[in-house]
Amino acid sequence: MGEAPAFYVDDMQGSFSNGFDLKLTGFETAIAVGNKTYVIGGNDDPTSNGVRIFDKSTGEWVIPTVLGTKPKALEGHLCVLLNQDKILIIKSNSNSNESVWFLEVDTLFIQDQKKKFDTEVVAWSKGVIGDAERPIVISGPSGVGKGTLINLLMKEFPTKFGFSVSHTTRAPREKEQNRVHYHFTKRSVMEEEIKAGKFLEFAAVHGNLYGTSIEAVDVVADAGKRCILDIDVQGARSVRDSSLEAIFIFVCPPSFEELEKRLRARGTETEEQIQKRLRNAKAELEQGNSPGLFDHILVNNDLEACYEQLKNILGISESMNIPPKTPNKAFDLSVDLSLSKINENILINCGPAEQRVVLDLSSMKGGAPARTRGLNMYALDPITDGANGCYF
Ligand SMILES: Nc1nc2c(ncn2[C@@H]2O[C@H](COP(=O)(O)OP(=O)(O)O)[C@@H](O)[C@H]2O)c(=O)[nH]1
Ligand SMILES: Nc1ncnc2c1ncn2[C@@H]1O[C@H](COP(=O)(O)OP(=O)(O)O)[C@@H](O)[C@H]1O
């Protein structure tokens, strides 16, 4: 303990070894990027931001300004340079929600050229392992029961799922609360915010503007929850084209007549609004059922049965005896680790038992900007060296 772990890193890191002429204390590890050496970890003093930088060209230490929340405890971590702007931090003995972090070096900038010790800015961002964390996009015509299904999910699993609170220019309904059901906003304000790049997606629906802000998704992810987006088909298409790797679910009514009945029975719209929603429903149903956009189509006939199917899709159904595809297994690696990077894979060698697991970097796409989602990880079969398909 107390020593930086051994690294075996490919050419990208060039001369990396633990041969820094720096004394590392506590649980610190170090990574060189150009002239700078990033020292990560150290004592878990809550006032520390978890990073200090040694600038070889000046021989000075810089305590950078760090954006984002740092990993809770950096004791027992390993790090590897992914490219010149991102350091991957893997924390051992930690649950999967906390085990993979990135230190974004590309956010570096000099705050004040005149100061002798420039304060640099770096950013922490959290990675997530496995499909189990993928956000869920739920679409379907007005009145089909999306909100009802989402409410059931949030009630049964309040710590697992979080709702992405959209912005809308429509007026609130009687029981709707600002910032809980929607961020109710003015069209001019929302248009400005869209221009400023604050939205992951937006669309005009039933004559109003609706959109998912990047922050809405981030808030849920920061709470360690899986994000649910209730958005229309156009929005789903935009999310498909975005970096957010989601699961796309389309909810259909058993019949058009039943949809109309539910919409009327809900009693939240005027006759004119109901007519508009029903007209739009026809196009939405056509698009929703067209191939390529949605991963799953649910028919919401019997609510209980439909909810059960939704949970099956999400791998959380109690009635199913098969394990979910990507269980949220604890990432319980010993501190006795080494890392190597081979092309798009990080190989983690775990101690004397020689257990080896692979972190597949090619799966790193996804996540709201500046975030990383859905890192796949699997164990290598000790005999064949082939993947055994086990996800962590
Ligand atoms: N593209 C997009 N659509 C959204 C968003 N929020 C809600 N919607 C969709 O807008 C439509 C109308 O929503 P709403 O006014 O709450 O009426 P409801 O569907 O009848 O409950 C629904 O299809 C929602 O899925 C969003 O952020 N983006
Ligand atoms: N399977 C179902 N059978 C009958 N009524 C339903 C069913 N699912 C939802 N509802 C009702 O239909 C209405 C519309 O549901 P809601 O969740 O508001 O739809 P959406 O969010 O898709 O607009 C609500 O009054 C809800 O209670």
UniProtKB/TrEMBL annotation:
UniProt GO molecular function: ATP binding; GMP kinase activity
A matching Pfam family: Guanylate_kin
Q: Name one GO cellular component term.
A: cytosol
Q: What does it catalyze?
A: GMP + ATP = GDP + ADP
Q: State its Enzyme Commission number(s).
A: 2.7.4.8
Q: Which InterPro entries match?
A: Gal_Oxase/kelch_b-propeller, GK/Ca_channel_bsu, Guanylate_kin-like_dom, Guanylate_kinase, Kelch-typ_b-propeller, Kelch_1, P-loop_NTPase
Which UniProt keywords are listed? ATP-binding, Kinase, Nucleotide-binding, Transferase
SUPFAM superfamilies named among the record's database cross-references:
Galactose oxidase, central domain, P-loop containing nucleoside triphosphate hydrolases
Q: Which family does it belong to?
A: Belongs to the guanylate kinase family.
- Which PANTHER family does this one have? GUANYLATE KINASE, GUANYLATE KINASE-RELATED
Name of the protein: Guanylate kinase 1
Query: Which species is listed as the source?
Result: Cynara cardunculus var. scolymus
